[in-house]
Amino acid sequence: MRDLYGRDFLSMADLNADELASVLDAADAFKRSLGAGKVKRSLEGKMVALIFQKPSTRTRVSFEAAVYHLGGHPLALNAAELQLGRGETIGDTGKVLSRYVHAVAIRTYGHHEVEELARTAEVPVVNALTDLEHPCQVLADLMTIRERLGALAGLRLAYVGDGNNVANSLALGCALTGMAFTAGCPRGYEPDERIIALARSLAGPEAVRVVHDPREAVAGAHVVYTDVWTSMGQREDQRRKRDLEPFRLDGELLSAADPEAVVMHCLPAHRGEEISDEVLDGPRSAVWDQAENRMHAQAALLDLLVGG
Ligand code: CP
Ligand code: NVA
Predict the structure, then answer these.
(1) Longest C-alpha distance within the chain, in Å?
(2) Where in the chain are the domains?
(3) Mind listing the pLDDT tens digit for each residue in 256-295?
(4) 59 lines ligand 2 (CB under 6 A)
């Protein structure tokens, strides 16, 4: 499929439903071919720059591993060590990097920075997490849900906790795949209003809900997802913890979900805060598969965007 060739991936909404299904199929295919030792080295002779303005374990290593498996060369760059850290604009950085590398993935704060990079770079730009979205995470999450539960359409996913970047991308990912999405968040911690409106415009108003009672959110859900209460760049304070406490994903809250519900967390987890050990390490947890699938999903994505 060449439809995605040369494009940016900044938001889940950059893909339509068919394109998303193709990326997920390609991710499954990559995973199978890696297992069989038959990966096509479609990035041979190509470099991918990975810029990090925030810490990362999974995203950095899974991107590096993905590029390696495809025969390309990954170049991880700590933004503080670039001239970016001394005031060179993101736009100028994008123009320059385009002369050396074939794609750029960037993790940063403001979503506008990723958009600015995409405007100026002449090569595909991939969002490796902003304050608004974490779309690469959600590609791996959808892949993982399909592995566990088969088809996505008709499933119900509940996200409980802080309505953050992961929740935003999940709302869009569910809307694009026919999954019902419910966010259960305290008042003041809801997902981004514009993202929710966009998800509703894609899937219909009843398919995308925001509620303020954690048990109501989780009731009957096939997938229960949570993430940290304080994201990178946010100030950790006692008030946040107090407000989010009732939304902790523990055995009691999970008992309101479907008896076979899959538990998800993008990691890193703050054990005992947003999720209990028994749930994170329990038999329904898919978190380690999610982490592994980051590599497969990103390999498929890079192959589609820049593979030869
Ligand atoms: N889930 C995720 O993006 O993890 P890292 O912050 O470790 O990259
Ligand atoms: N919401 C979290 C996700 C980390 C992968 C953060 O932005 O810190």
Answers:
(1) 54
(2) 12-134+294-306, 137-290
(3) 999 999 999 999 999 999 999 999 999 999 999 999 999 9
(4) no
